[in-house]
Write a structure and sequence with these properties.
The structure holds two protein chains of two kinds. By secondary structure, chain A is mainly α. Chain A has three helices and no strands. In chain A, α2 packs antiparallel against α3. The two termini of chain B are 35 Å apart. Classes of the chains: A mainly alpha, B mainly alpha.
Chain lengths: 117, 499
Amino acid sequence: MNAYMPYVLCMILFSIGVYAILAKRNIIKIILGVVIAEYAVNLFLVLVAYKVGGRSAIFSETQVILPESMVDPLPHALVLTSIVIGLATTAFLIALAIRLYGKYGTFDITRMRELRG
Amino acid sequence: MISAGIVPLFVAIPLAGAFLIALFKRIKGIPDILGVFAPGGMFILSILFLLKMEIAQRIIYNIGNWGGFNEVLGRIVGIQLVIDGLTIFMLLIVNFVAFIVAVYSVNYMTRYTEKWQFYCLFLLMLAGMNGVLITGDLFNLFVFVEIASLASYALVAFGTEKRELEASFKYAVMGGIASLLILMGVIFLYSYTGTVNMADMAVILAGSQQPALMYLVFGLLLTGFGLKAAMVPFHAWLPDAHPSAPAPISAMLSGVLIKALGVYAIARVFFTVFGFPHQISIILMILGAISMGVGALVALRQWDMKRLLAYSSISQIGYIMVGLGIGTPLGIMGALFHLFNHSMFKSLLFLDSGAVEYAAGTRDMKEMGGLSRKLPVTSGSTLAGAMSLAGIPPFAGFWSKLIIIVALVEANHMKLAAWAVLMSIITIAYILKVTRFAFLGALRDRFANIKEVPLLMRISLILLSLVCIFGGLLLIPEVRETFLEPAVRVLISGIGGGV
């Protein structure tokens, strides 16, 4: 098992998301593509902090814990922010999808062609 | 000397304003008052900073006093807010345009229902933009970019008709991808340097040999911020999104949003953090030149007034990018001055298109004609904006384009200089189309009874056209020293630091 494998998987997941955004015609599938790509990036952010055998970044009064043995705590804080932002984007996109369905009666993006040129 | 304690107000005031508007939406007049006075107050605040700042001074504010942990790892732990010359320059532009747009919206937005939602989203967008400008932390920059973008997606869809929803969906998906690319770039940088503070990052990057990974980071960040700035080839969302929004929001989006989120972020990241490597200079100039051409040529064949202006924005962003890409002090000054001018005249022109729509009910230029007799203020201010955009002396736009072209010649990019001149001639062609078909010629019968727009809208149009006419005065040495030069100095001092 190569140590780079998780990162490669992350990139594959991201590519799946981008493929869905570019190739799919259904609005819901496009939104799912955005979500998948988003999760890939979040996963990547957490993986950056990972350390084999690392422990959580909490100091103790009773035993000596070296900072070197801890995982990096900052990306954990960052990924929470990133997840919340992703949630807001997804909620907005789904609300738009509902309104679009109300106007056109379909989720097919190729039938929505008000904007040309 | 001003205390650093008031720096967070640039984000706190609009956030509090948005919250209060949602709270007091039932009380008549409250959304209008808060929506106008919040940007107005911040404009006054940024003037205060401009006057009190000493030369090359940086004001740093540590959020939650986390800077006190400096000694733990020898690095800055918390989030920093930084104000320097470039930040002040951008803050002034953003808050001035926001103030004018808010005054204009008081009358204009009565066409839509639920005006308080508009002001709420408007202030959220402003909070995001101000946050982008004052933050000194790369991840925090991403967060503020997202706040501003989300608010702008919602504002594009504000009309909730077919057209608006479709444009907003396109914009939101493309903007979402851009944000992911930016975030990925930030993660790569963090894993390499171990910090998200931009000043720290610059020091670490300057002191080490760059791995090939940095080219991936360049690509990710340039694509992400380029999408937000609507550079060709990442421009596809702009000609749909900007015309679909209500006119004041088109003015905000074209006038300041693409600059705060796109141009400023590119300048900040590539100049201050990476030290402006040679490859980036070439890429910016090539993409800028292509944007210039594509935007101007496609604008020529548009008949929808707002769509024409949106394509013109792409073209003018190209000028700014080329100016930045030259990397000489003169080029950067031209770019920043053109950024200032473009915010003024493009906001003005979009507000004018809104005024025409408000009075005559159409924005198709084939249906207009002879409106200058009925709408003297609107047509006069459009003429001022158009002349500034076309680069007719002595309007402000002429001087900034002249500086960029002179800088190109000085740096021995003769072909690019010729291209820029050619494109500014095409600019004259497409903007004359607006004045010719919309305002001159015979008045149609159906427009016989239209009236000039209300007072507040007129005031904001007149204020912006005055800036367009007298903007060239910023080049007077004394004024330049306090306004333009500090911003240029910040970018120049970043060059050569990193790669």
